[in-house]
Amino acid sequence: PGLTVPTLSSAGIPTSPTESLDLLNRKLNEAENSHQDLLMNKNRLEHDLKIKSNSLFIDREKCLSSRKSFPVVSLATKL
Q1: Where are the annotated coiled coils located (predicted)?
Q2: Residue 20: inside a domain, yes or no?
Protein backbone atom coordinates (compact mmCIF):
# COMPACT_ATOMS: atom_id res chain seq x y z
CA PRO A 1 0.00 0.00 0.00
CA GLY A 2 1.43 3.30 -1.11
CA LEU A 3 4.61 1.70 -2.53
CA THR A 4 5.55 2.25 -6.14
CA VAL A 5 7.78 0.23 -8.41
CA PRO A 6 11.12 2.01 -8.69
CA THR A 7 11.76 3.32 -12.17
CA LEU A 8 14.09 5.74 -13.85
CA SER A 9 12.67 9.17 -14.37
CA SER A 10 12.31 10.48 -17.89
CA ALA A 11 15.65 12.30 -17.41
CA GLY A 12 17.42 8.99 -16.61
CA ILE A 13 17.87 9.91 -12.95
CA PRO A 14 17.45 7.02 -10.51
CA THR A 15 14.34 7.30 -8.40
CA SER A 16 15.22 4.80 -5.67
CA PRO A 17 18.23 4.10 -3.46
CA THR A 18 18.74 0.71 -5.15
CA GLU A 19 18.84 2.32 -8.58
CA SER A 20 21.23 4.96 -7.27
CA LEU A 21 23.51 2.25 -5.90
CA ASP A 22 23.37 0.30 -9.17
CA LEU A 23 24.19 3.45 -11.14
CA LEU A 24 27.09 4.29 -8.83
CA ASN A 25 28.45 0.74 -9.11
CA ARG A 26 28.30 0.93 -12.92
CA LYS A 27 30.10 4.29 -12.85
CA LEU A 28 32.72 2.85 -10.47
CA ASN A 29 33.26 -0.10 -12.82
CA GLU A 30 33.68 2.26 -15.78
CA ALA A 31 36.14 4.40 -13.83
CA GLU A 32 38.15 1.34 -12.73
CA ASN A 33 38.26 0.05 -16.31
CA SER A 34 39.42 3.45 -17.55
CA HIS A 35 42.08 3.53 -14.84
CA GLN A 36 43.35 0.09 -15.86
CA ASP A 37 43.47 1.19 -19.52
CA LEU A 38 45.45 4.28 -18.55
CA LEU A 39 47.90 2.21 -16.49
CA MET A 40 48.42 -0.18 -19.40
CA ASN A 41 49.01 2.75 -21.77
CA LYS A 42 51.46 4.30 -19.30
CA ASN A 43 53.40 1.03 -19.03
CA ARG A 44 53.48 0.66 -22.81
CA LEU A 45 54.71 4.23 -23.26
CA GLU A 46 57.37 3.80 -20.57
CA HIS A 47 58.55 0.61 -22.30
CA ASP A 48 58.68 2.39 -25.67
CA LEU A 49 60.60 5.27 -24.10
CA LYS A 50 63.19 2.87 -22.62
CA ILE A 51 63.68 1.23 -26.01
CA LYS A 52 64.08 4.59 -27.75
CA SER A 53 66.46 5.87 -25.08
CA ASN A 54 68.55 2.74 -25.46
CA SER A 55 68.57 3.15 -29.24
CA LEU A 56 69.76 6.74 -28.90
CA PHE A 57 72.46 5.66 -26.45
CA ILE A 58 73.69 2.97 -28.84
CA ASP A 59 73.66 5.41 -31.74
CA ARG A 60 75.48 8.12 -29.81
CA GLU A 61 78.02 5.95 -27.99
CA LYS A 62 78.66 3.20 -30.50
CA CYS A 63 77.85 4.52 -33.96
CA LEU A 64 78.43 8.26 -33.99
CA SER A 65 82.21 7.98 -34.06
CA SER A 66 82.01 5.58 -37.02
CA ARG A 67 79.72 7.91 -38.93
CA LYS A 68 82.11 10.79 -38.33
CA SER A 69 84.96 8.69 -39.75
CA PHE A 70 83.00 7.57 -42.79
CA PRO A 71 80.86 10.44 -44.04
CA VAL A 72 77.83 9.39 -46.04
CA VAL A 73 77.27 11.09 -49.38
CA SER A 74 73.63 11.34 -50.29
CA LEU A 75 72.58 10.07 -53.71
CA ALA A 76 70.59 13.26 -54.21
CA THR A 77 73.78 15.36 -54.14
CA LYS A 78 75.36 13.22 -56.89
CA LEU A 79 72.57 13.91 -59.37
Answers
A1: 21-48
A2: yes
Q: Number of folded domains in the chain?
A: 1
Distance CA 14, CA 23 (A): 8
Q: Where are the alpha helices (DSSP H) in 1-79?
A: 17-58, 64-69, 75-78
Instruction: Please choose, from the candidates 14, 11, 42, the residue with its C-alpha nearest in 3D space to the C-alpha of residue 26.
Output: 14
Domain of residue 42, residue span: 16-64
34 within some domain: yes
Give the tens place of pLDDT for each residue, 15-27.
Answer: 788 888 999 999 9
pTM assigned to the model: 0.58
